[in-house]
């Protein structure tokens, strides 16, 4: 029996949701497999989200083990690329979850990191056939690419029943599908005081239509306070500011919202499956499947009228009763990852 070491490197909210179902799937494989390969797992947390709300709570709620190593590097979005670069220099094979995602916007640090990590990886797991084709066009050998689906949706499937039972207190005071859920964290939206003020003006107008729940990232809250927008939001009875939420609380809110407004990536994918219309406050997205599904619309964050038109379009639609699942977003992506890892370990080592 061959034993292969697997080092998982995580640092941000989406990383936690991607790795939790994968680590469980590997454990299941190790217990039940009659194959000649088992895996020894270690978990490294780079410490990008260092507050309890953004880190420890996620580990607890997702059933993740305590990290074997905690690097405490602070707000560094480069942990994936750094890990891939170090592994490559040490001649350790690199596997990349969500390979082939591209927004087309190289001003986003994540975009550069995705491209470079994919160039360093030898095992590339994609969420769509389009991502696999994109990698092939970029010169990645097709034998290295595996279309497995979205492991983040595996996590959603595992946690949604629990999340709905543990809805946060603010949600109990709201009617299902009668509130909007807002997140803002991208530097391009929150670091410029004028831009942030303009976005809050739009949020204020949206709140005249339906309540807006706003779990404010600690960094975002600081920017709101610095530009004077925090006080205005706190005075608005139709805007519910909350501290950052754990995964279960946020998932419950997202599943019950009439509308999501976000500049996050992963929330677009989650909203698609949950049937929550999403207005993405960006001009590009890596989750092109959600645009094709019609669950997500891009709105130029520098255009108040574009945002309001997108919100109005979503609110005109009948509240959805079910979401849309792109191919292989079925809760079994992690099992496919493990199967591909077994094949690689058998044939490639």
Helix content: 40-55%
Instruction: Output the CATH class name of the largest domain.
Output: Alpha Beta
What is the overall shape? globular
Structurally, the number of domains stands at: 2
SSE pattern, N- to C-terminal: EHEHEHEHEHEHHEHHEHHEHEHEHEHH
Provide the CATH architecture of the largest domain.
Answer: 3-Layer(aba) Sandwich
Specify the oligomeric state: single chain
Question: In whole angstroms, how far apart are the ends?
Answer: 13 Å
* Poorly predicted sequence stretches spanning 5 or more consecutive residues: none
Q: Main beta sheet: strand number and arrangement?
A: 6 strands, parallel
Radius of gyration: 20 Å
Number of helices: 16
* CATH homologous superfamily identity of the largest domain: Glycogen Phosphorylase B
**Widest β-sheet, arrangement of strands:** 9-8-7-10-11-12
Strand content: 15-25%
């Amino acid at each position: 029996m061959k034993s292969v070491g697997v080092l998982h490197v995580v640092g941000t909210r989406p990383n936690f949701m991607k790795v939790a179902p994968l680590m469980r799937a590997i454990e299941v494989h190790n217990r039940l497999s009659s194959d000649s390969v088992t895996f020894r797992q270690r978990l490294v947390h780079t410490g990008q989200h260092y507050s309890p709300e953004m880190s420890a709570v996620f580990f607890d709620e997702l059933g993740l083990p305590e990290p074997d190593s905690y690097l405490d590097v602070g707000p560094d979005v480069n942990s994936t690329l750094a890990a891939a670069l170090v592994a490559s220099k040490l001649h350790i094979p690199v596997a990349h979850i969500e390979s082939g995602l591209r927004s087309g916007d190289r001003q986003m640090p994540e975009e550069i990191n995705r491209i470079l990590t994919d160039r360093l990886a030898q095992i590339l797991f994609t969420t769509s056939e389009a991502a696999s084709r994109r990698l092939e066009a970029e010169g990645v050998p097709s034998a290295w690419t595996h279309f497995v689906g979205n492991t983040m949706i595996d996590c959603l499937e595992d946690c949604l029943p629990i999340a709905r039972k543990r809805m946060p207190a603010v949600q109990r005071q709201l009617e299902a599908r009668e509130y909007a859920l807002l997140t803002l964290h991208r530097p391009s939206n929150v670091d410029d005081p004028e831009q942030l003020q303009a976005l809050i003006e739009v949020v204020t107008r949206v709140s005249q239509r339906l309540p807006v729940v706003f779990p404010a990232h600690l960094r975002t809250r600081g920017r709101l306070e610095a530009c004077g927008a925090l006080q205005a939001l706190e005075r608005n009875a139709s805007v519910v500011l909350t501290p950052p939420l754990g995964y279960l609380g946020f998932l419950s809110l997202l599943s019950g919202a009439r509308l999501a407004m976000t500049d996050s990536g992963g929330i677009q994918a989650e909203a698609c499956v949950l049937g929550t219309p999403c207005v993405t406050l960006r001009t590009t997205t890596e989750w092109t499947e959600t645009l094709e599904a019609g669950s997500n619309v891009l709105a130029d964050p520098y255009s108040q009228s574009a945002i309001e038109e997108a919100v109005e379009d979503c609110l005109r639609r009948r509240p959805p009763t079910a979401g849309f699942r792109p191919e292989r977003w079925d809760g079994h992506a992690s099992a496919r990852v493990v199967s591909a890892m077994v094949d690689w370990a058998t044939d490639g080592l």
